[in-house]
Write a structure and sequence with these properties.
single chain; globular
Length: 140
């Protein structure tokens, strides 16, 4: 299933935790009203996001390079990571504020993962339901 039990379930939780950390960091920056604090948070994001993407890349490699984060098939970890990466790439304010998105260049497995997940029929249906707010090729 999408959330396996045992060791694989714990590995899914690890990916979900990393996705939550990214979301929390970005949202803290996004809602901050104090300009000085917002600049500090922005700098922290510029430093942490590349490291996070490299961590995602390592997790994909550790799973044998089969294109999934955990086990031999897609899990909730794959969907969550795809959603976070897509959110960061497609959110109009993030790329400009964070200096663009060169972050996918050093992470070919994460890039391949993102592209393979976005082609799944149910994911395509989800993207289409979002209309023009989702640019599939923002990272090209």
């Amino acid at each position: 299933g999408l959330k396996p039990a045992g060791f694989e379930g714990a590995a899914v939780d690890q990916v979900l935790g990393l996705c939550q950390e990214v979301t929390d960091q970005v949202m803290s920056w996004f809602v901050e009203e104090d300009d000085e604090k917002k600049e500090e948070l922005q700098l922290a994001l510029k430093q942490s996001l590349p490291k996070t993407f490299i961590k995602f890349e390592s997790m994909l490699k550790e799973n044998g390079g089969n294109g999934y984060f955990v086990g031999p098939t897609m899990t909730l970890a794959d969907i969550a990571a795809w959603k976070v990466v897509g959110w960061l790439i497609n959110e109009a304010n993030f790329p400009e504020a964070l200096g663009g998105y060169p972050y996918l260049s050093p992470v070919p497995k994460l890039t391949a993962h993102f592209r393979s997940i976005e082609k799944l029929p149910k994911i395509v249906q989800y993207i289409r339901s979002k209309g023009s707010s989702y640019d599939l090729h923002a990272y090209d």
